[in-house]
C-alpha cells in the first residue's frame, strides 16, 4: 500500500498481534470482499434502468430492476453493520492483549526504566497510545484496506467498460494517491513530538496530584500553577503547529482530488462525444463509479492525519516493548534450599544519574541470621536491598545467595523467596483479604488469620466489624499508616519468605504495637535471613550482626556482641553516644 507511511518493523509487529485474531480477520476479509462486489455490481442495475427507460421498457420491468437495486443496497448495509461489529470485537481483543503485554513489561522493567518514566507517562502509553491504535484498527485499518480494494475493483470494472476511460481514471487515481502519499509523511514528526510532550504533561499532573498534601502544606501551589501554566502554553504551541500541519494535509488532499475529478470528467465528456457506441446508461454508470471512487480517496485524505498519530503511537509502543531491561532474566537456576546466606563481594552500583549508590561493598551474612543496617540518610542502605531483590544490578562485584551469583537464578524464583517491607506500602482498592493475599486464590482465611495471630495482630482484626471483608479504599485511604504497615507484614510473611528485608518497616507503628510486633518477628523470622534497615539503634540491638554504611561504603560490619565490647568500634561509640543517632 503506497499510502502507509509506517515503517516495516511496525507493520511486522502489528501483523503479529493481528494474527492472534486470525479467524475473525479471515471472516472480515470475506465480508469486505462481498461488500465490494455488491458496490460494484449494484450500480449496473442503474445502467439497465436508464437504458431500458430510454428504450421505453414496461414500467413493471423497470420496477423489478429498481427493487433489486434497493434490496442489494439493503444487503450491503447489513453486511457493513456486521463488518463493524466483528471489527470492533477483534480489535478490542487485540489491543487488550497489547495493553496486558505492555503492563506486564512495565511492571518487570528495572529501576532505571521507572526512574525515567513517570507513572502518568506510562498510563498515557498503555492506555492513550493503545487507544489510538484501537481506533486505527477498528475505524481505519480495515477501512483503508477496503478503500484500496474498492479503488482497484472500480478501476478494473471501468477498464472492462471502456479501456480508454479506464486509463484516464487510473492515471487520475494514481496521481492522486501519489500526491496524498507525499502529504502523508508531512507533519508526522510534529505529531510524535506532541504525543511525547502530552505524555510528559500527564506525568507532571499525576505526580503533583499525588503530592498534593505536601504541596499544600509547604505552600507550593503558586509555583506548581506557574509551572503548569508554562507547560500548558508549550503544549498549546506544539498542538497548534500539529493542527496546522494536519489541516494543510487535509485541505491540500481535498484540492488534489477535486482537480482530479474535474479533469477526468472533462476527458470522459470528450470520449463520449467521439465514441457513438457509448450509451447514456453506460456513461452514467462510469460517472457513478467515479463518485464511489471519490469516497475511498477522500477517506484516505482524512485518515492520513489519524495514520500519522498511529504511526507515532506505534513507535512509542514499540519503544516501550523493546526496552532492554538492565536487569536481565537469563538465569535458570532455582533456589531449592530453605536456609539462605547472602554475600556481597566488592559490589559497586551507580544510579543512572551517576549518583553513587554503594561503592566496593563486601560483607557476608550466614543463613538464618539477622543483620541490622544503619547509616545516615542517603548512605546507601536501601540500595543494598534493591540490589538483593534485583530491582537493579550492580555494575561491579558479585552478590551471591548460598554461594551462587544471584543473576544465575530465575528472577521470579529469586524474588519469590524475598519479602521486602518498607515504609511505602501500596494498598489497592478491594477487600482486606485481597490486600493481604495479593489476589492469590489458594490462600485460605485460616492461613491469613494464622499469620495475623502470629503477628499479634488479632486484637486489631477483631476490632474490625467486617473482618477480612473490610473494604480497603484506593491507596488505602481509609487506613492509618500504621495499619497499612500491619497489612504489609501479614502480606510478606504469608509468602513464607527465606529472606526478609525490613526497610524502616516499623517507623509508623505506635510504640506499644511495635513492641508486640517485634516479639512476633523473632518467632516468624527464626527460619529466615533478615536484614533490618533502621534509623533507631534500639531496633537493631538484638540482631546478630551490625552493618554501618557511610557515603555508600561499609565502614563497619561485625557480630553485634563483639562490636558492643570493642571500644574502638563505631557501633560502641554510637551506643555510648545514645539513642536515635545515625552513624
Ligand atoms: N532511584 C534513584 N535514582 C537515583 N538516585 C538514587 C535513587 N535512589 C537513591 N538514590 C541515591 O542513592 C544514594 C543512596 O540512597 P539510598 O536510598 O540507598 O540511601 P539510604 O541510606 O537508604 O537513605 P534513607 O535512610 O534516607 O532511606 C543517595 O544519594 C540517593 O540520592
UniProtKB/TrEMBL annotation:
Which keywords describe this protein according to UniProt?
Answer: ATP-binding, Membrane, Nucleotide-binding, Transmembrane, Transmembrane helix, Transport
Which CDD domains does this entry report, sorted A to Z? ABC_6TM_exporters (cd07346)
One Gene Ontology cellular component: cytoplasm
InterPro entries the record matches = AAA+_ATPase, ABC1_TM_dom, ABC1_TM_sf, ABC_transporter-like_ATP-bd, ABC_transporter-like_CS, P-loop_NTPase, Type_1_exporter
Tell me yes or no: is NAD among this UniProt entry's keywords: no
Ranges in coiled-coil conformation: none
Q: How does it sit in the membrane?
A: Multi-pass membrane protein
Gene3D superfamilies, sorted: ABC transporter type 1, transmembrane domain, P-loop containing nucleotide triphosphate hydrolases
Please state every residue range assigned to the domain named ABC transporter. 342-576
* Originating organism: Paenibacillus contaminans
Classify the source by domain of life. Answer: Bacteria
One Pfam family cited in the UniProt record for this chain: ABC_tran
**Chain ranges passing through the membrane:** 24-41, 62-86, 148-180, 246-272, 278-297
Record-given protein name: ABC transporter ATP-binding protein
Amino acid at each position: 500500500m503506497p499510502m502507509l507511511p509506517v515503517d516495516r518493523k511496525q507493520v511486522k509487529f502489528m501483523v503479529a498481534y493481528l494474527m492472534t485474531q486470525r479467524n475473525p480477520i479471515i471472516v472480515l476479509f470475506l465480508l469486505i470482499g462481498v461488500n465490494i462486489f455488491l458496490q460494484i455490481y449494484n450500480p449496473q442495475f442503474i445502467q439497465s434502468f436508464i437504458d431500458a427507460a430510454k428504450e421505453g421498457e414496461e414500467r413493471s420491468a423497470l420496477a423489478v430492476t429498481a427493487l433489486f437495486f434497493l434490496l442489494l443496497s439493503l444487503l450491503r448495509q447489513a453486511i457493513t453493520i456486521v463488518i463493524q461489529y466483528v471489527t470492533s470485537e477483534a480489535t478490542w481483543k487485540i489491543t487488550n492483549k497489547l495493553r496486558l503485554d505492555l503492563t506486564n513489561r512495565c511492571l518487570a522493567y528495572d529501576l532505571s526504566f521507572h526512574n525515567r518514566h513517570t507513572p502518568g507517562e506510562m498510563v498515557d502509553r498503555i492506555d492513550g497510545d493503545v487507544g489510538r491504535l484501537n481506533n486505527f484498527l477498528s475505524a481505519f485499518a480495515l477501512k483503508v484496506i477496503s478503500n484500496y480494494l474498492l479503488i482497484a475493483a472500480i478501476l478494473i470494472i471501468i477498464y472492462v467498460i471502456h479501456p480508454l476511460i479506464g486509463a484516464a481514471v487510473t492515471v487520475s487515481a494514481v496521481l492522486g494517491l501519489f500526491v496524498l502519499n507525499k502529504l502523508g509523511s508531512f507533519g508526522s514528526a510534529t505529531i510524535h513530538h506532541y504525543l511525547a510532550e502530552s505524555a510528559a504533561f500527564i506525568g507532571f499532573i499525576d505526580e503533583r496530584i499525588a503530592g498534593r498534601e505536601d504541596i499544600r502544606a509547604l505552600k507550593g501551589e503558586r509555583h506548581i500553577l506557574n509551572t503548569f501554566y508554562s507547560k500548558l502554553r508549550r503544549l498549546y504551541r506544539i498542538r497548534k503547529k500539529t493542527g496546522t500541519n494536519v489541516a494543510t494535509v487535509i485541505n491540500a488532499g481535498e484540492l488534489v482530488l477535486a482537480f482530479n475529478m474535474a479533469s477526468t470528467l472533462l476527458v470522459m465528456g470528450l470520449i463520449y462525444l467521439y465514441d457513438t457506441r457509448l450509451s447514456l446508461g453506460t456513461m452514467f454508470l462510469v460517472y457513478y463509479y467515479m463518485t464511489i471512487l471519490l469516497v475511498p480517496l477522500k477517506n484516505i485524505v482524512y485518515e492520513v492525519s489519524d495514520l500519522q498519530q498511529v504511526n507515532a503511537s506505534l513507535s512509542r509502543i514499540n519503544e516501550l516493548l523493546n526496552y532492554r531491561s538492565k536487569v536481565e532474566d537469563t538465569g535458570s537456576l532455582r533456589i531449592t534450599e530453605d536456609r539462605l546466606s547472602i554475600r556481597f563481594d566488592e559490589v559497586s552500583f551507580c544510579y543512572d544519574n551517576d549518583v553513587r549508590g554503594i561503592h566496593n561493598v563486601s560483607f557476608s551474612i550466614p543463613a538464618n541470621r539477622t543483620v541490622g543496617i544503619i547509616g545516615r540518610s542517603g548512605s546507601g542502605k536501601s540500595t543494598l536491598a534493591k540490589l538483593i531483590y534485583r530491582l537493579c544490578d550492580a555494575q561491579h562485584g558479585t552478590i551471591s545467595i548460598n554461594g551462587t551469583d544471584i543473576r544465575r537464578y530465575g528472577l521470579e524464583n529469586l524474588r519469590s523467596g524475598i519479602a521486602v517491607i518498607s515504609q511505602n506500602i501500596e494498598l489497592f482498592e478491594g477487600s482486606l483479604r485481597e490486600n493481604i493475599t495479593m489476589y492469590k486464590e489458594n490462600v485460605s482465611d485460616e492461613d491469613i488469620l494464622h499469620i495475623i495471630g502470629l503477628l499479634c495482630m488479632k486484637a486489631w482484626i477483631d476490632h474490625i466489624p467486617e473482618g477480612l471483608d473490610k473494604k480497603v479504599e484506593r491507596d488505602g485511604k481509609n487506613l492509618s499508616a500504621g495499619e497499612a504497615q500491619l497489612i504489609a507484614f501479614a502480606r510478606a510473611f504469608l509468602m513464607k519468605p527465606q529472606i526478609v528485608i525490613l526497610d524502616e518497616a516499623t517507623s509508623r507503628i505506635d510504640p506499644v504495637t511495635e513492641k508486640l510486633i517485634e516479639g512476633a518477628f523473632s518467632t516468624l523470622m527464626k527460619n529466615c535471613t533478615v536484614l533490618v534497615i533502621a534509623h533507631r539503634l534500639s531496633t537493631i540491638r538484638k540482631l546478630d550482626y551490625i552493618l554501618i554504611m557511610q557515603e555508600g561504603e561499609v565502614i563497619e560490619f561485625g557480630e553485634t556482641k563483639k562490636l558492643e565490647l570493642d571500644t574502638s568500634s563505631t557501633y560502641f561509640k554510637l551506643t555510648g553516644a545514645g539513642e536515635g543517632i545515625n552513624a
